[in-house]
Design goal:
The protein is α+β, with helices and mostly antiparallel strands. The chain is 52% helix and 16% strand. Strands 1, 2, 3, 4, 5, 6, 7 and 8 form an 8-stranded mixed beta sheet that branches. It has a two-stranded antiparallel sheet with strand order 9-10. The two termini are 26 Å apart.
Length: 357
């Protein structure tokens, strides 16, 4: 496919790049993202810019190493509401997400980090006037800062169907267990100890939410791939710039053929990530089947981006590992994203299954 951007796409990218170059903090950044309509784009509210624009958004977020919680708090939480709430009973939730006035956290992964339906560790029981939710959700970023939780739970009395519940984050029975991760996203395990949820807290059909959740997880995966692409390109740019400045034996180290070949190989890796991300985004926007393309993007980004980071560190030597080094920040973000995308074996199994193998 043609990797050149249209005039509109160039304008979107340039606007994002200029904004993120100001290094906005998380709170200010979320507010200003909302003012520009980018939170509405991420949350799946009607927009002519579509999924390709979403990919550009997260590519620039990765390039700038901006730490905001948009994938979990906006893409996953917002798109679940947008996809399931046909009656607009939770329009206020979507408004809170797209305006940046309320913080949401999407609780779905099990404590091992798995996103497979079979691993879902949350359960919901029907009781008078509502439901009771119990179990544990793992690796929920910025959960302790959330106002509300979007909780995916398996129904215990509806043939193992899956439902989504909107629960106030400070409801009785909810506890947060802080986790230390390679990338400081303030992740928590969220424990639900017989948490009562009123009937109005159900989003969408009881026991019938899984198809919509699958769609949301696919788009969130693509957003994470795009963010990883941005981090990888930034890491390579930092390394090439350093090689042009750092002198050894009377000349820049970038003049040595061995380093040139390493950088060229990693440029191929970055282009492979971009091709995979843009292809998947284009297929979704065109209404074509995209599950295999998204899975391929996850596989390619999960394999190529760590190679880019490793080579960038080889070019830098020990200086690249200083905690305040931009390269170190991008490397941590890449490693964190790879863990979120799942193991290489699981990604290959996903592609093989979609191919009917």
């Amino acid at each position: 496919m043609d990797l050149d951007l249209s005039a509109e796409q160039h304008a979107i990218r340039d606007e994002l790049r200029a904004f993120l170059a100001e290094e906005p903090g998380v709170a200010d950044g979320v507010r200003r993202f909302a003012e520009r309509g980018w939170l509405a784009l991420a949350a799946g509210v009607d927009s002519p810019r579509g999924i390709f624009a979403l990919a550009l958004l997260f590519e620039e977020i990765g390039r700038a190493a901006w730490p905001g919680p948009l994938i979990n708090g906006v893409v996953e939480s917002g798109r679940v509401v947008a996809g399931l709430d046909r009656e607009k009973c939770h329009a206020d939730a979507l408004l809170g997400i797209t305006s940046g006035q309320r913080n949401f956290a999407f609780c779905f992964r099990d404590p091992s980090g798995s996103t497979e339906l079979e691993s879902l560790a949350l359960r919901a029981e029907d009781v008078k006037d509502g439901f009771v939710v119990h179990g544990k959700a793992g690796f929920v970023p910025h959960a302790q800062d959330a106002d509300e939780l979007m909780v995916v739970a398996r129904s215990e009395s509806r043939n193992d169907g899956v439902s989504v519940f909107r629960i106030h984050a400070r409801s009785p029975g909810i506890a947060f267990e802080s986790l230390e991760t390679i990338f400081d996203d303030e992740s928590c395990d969220v424990v639900f100890d017989d948490v009562r949820v009123p009937g109005s807290g159900l989003i969408g059909p009881r026991g019938g939410a899984w198809p919509a959740i699958e769609d949301v997880l696919g788009i969130a995966t693509l957003a994470r791939c795009a963010e990883t692409l941005g981090d990888a390109e930034a890491a390579l740019t930092i390394a090439v710039d350093y090689a042009a400045r750092r002198e050894q034996f009377g000349q820049p180290i970038g003049a040595f053929q061995a380093l040139q070949h390493q950088a060229a190989d990693r440029k191929v890796d970055v282009d492979a990530c971009r091709l995979a991300v843009y292809e998947a985004a284009s297929r979704i926007d065109a209404g074509l089947p995209a599950e295999e393309a998204v899975a391929s993007a996850a596989l390619i980004c999960g394999e190529a981006a760590p190679r880019v980071a490793a080579t960038a560190h080889q070019i830098h030597g020990a200086i690249g590992y200083y905690a305040d080094s931009p390269l170190e920040q991008h490397t941590r973000r890449i490693q964190h994203a790879v863990l979120r995308l799942g193991s290489a074996a699981s990604r290959l199994d996903r592609i093989a299954g979609l191919a009917g193998l």
